[in-house]
Amino acid sequence: MWSEGREGMYAAQHSRDPVRDFPPVERELDNYWEKAFPILYPYGTGGIAAKRPVKLSLLEQTRWALQQHDHRFRTYQSFVFVACNQQQRRDALSSCRVLIKRRDFAKLSSKFANLTVADLEKAADEESKGIQISNPNARALLEATFGTASRVIAADSIRSQYRKELQAGSIYFGPPSVWVTVNPDDLHDPIAQVLVGEEIDLDQFSKTVGPTKQERAKNIARDGAKVSNKRFESSKGIFGILEGYYGTVECQGRGSLHIHMLLFLKGAPSWEEMRELLKTEDFRAKVKTFIAANFKAHYPELKNKEAIDAIPSNTEVAYDRPPHPDSEDYWVKVHDLEVQVVRTKQMHTCTPQTCIINDRKGARCKRRAP
């Protein structure tokens, strides 16, 4: 191939010793990031955790890398996922603490001293299967522990912290008015396509103009950080003016995000006022009207399997704009759009690969589908 002016393939053999991916790095040549991402570090230097005059944390260096002018770090397929995984592992290991009440320490210290790694591994396996932990010492450790790993995302202790923050918000703002989940179609939403640089006229929108379905998916997968690195200003919306909100972002299996939020509306009645208002018939009627206009739980067009199969699924339903409020058949168009969205996005089919789990209750859907 060299004689033809082409470059052939290279065979690279791994070494006997794995590269350490957790500091401190003993040898300067054993930098995990430089070896794992040779395309990002073509000169084999400058990787995260490398020696430099000013010591920087993993989080600081990752943020710097994602803001690089050439975007090579944030557009690389696996760099963001590896960096997030490393950060979460370090948070878990550096913040792991077992907190025990003083009165229980003397009684439990001898039990904890007799625990082995095998005992803890067996207890973890039993806990994951939903059965009672057989080792009494491990069970005593679990029962006596009331705080661990307070910096680990999604840990029980961090969820407890979220609840306390939410309670504080309810005391400060008053009772929340709306609970909402925002789960946008990240691949086909035209607003997301505009944010990544596509030239789309949102005022005079046309489905046939703009990137194809495949191009839209590539745009989001190529540089998801570009969409999230935006700043927005809020104004009066469909619910009125927000006094405040509290939301938690969750990540799905493929990396897409959705958020659960409680909205605190400006001018909403307090707990005491709400109790008195709910005693009046006029206010209860207004609440019913508001709920009926904004929240739907049933569509007659999707009442059974035959009706559902009669309506085709439209995977590109999100690549559109909502009906114009001034159109004469506005409510008809809104209803048809809602049916299409529910038919395409809200239908759940149970499969062993997605949601069916086996525990002591038998096989069941973890999404609680019937």
TrEMBL record:
<protein>
    <recommendedName>
        <fullName>Helitron helicase-like domain-containing protein</fullName>
    </recommendedName>
</protein>
<dbReference type="InterPro" id="IPR025476">
    <property type="entry name" value="Helitron_helicase-like"/>
</dbReference>
<dbReference type="Pfam" id="PF14214">
    <property type="entry name" value="Helitron_like_N"/>
</dbReference>
<feature type="domain" description="Helitron helicase-like">
    <location>
        <begin position="63"/>
        <end position="263"/>
    </location>
</feature>
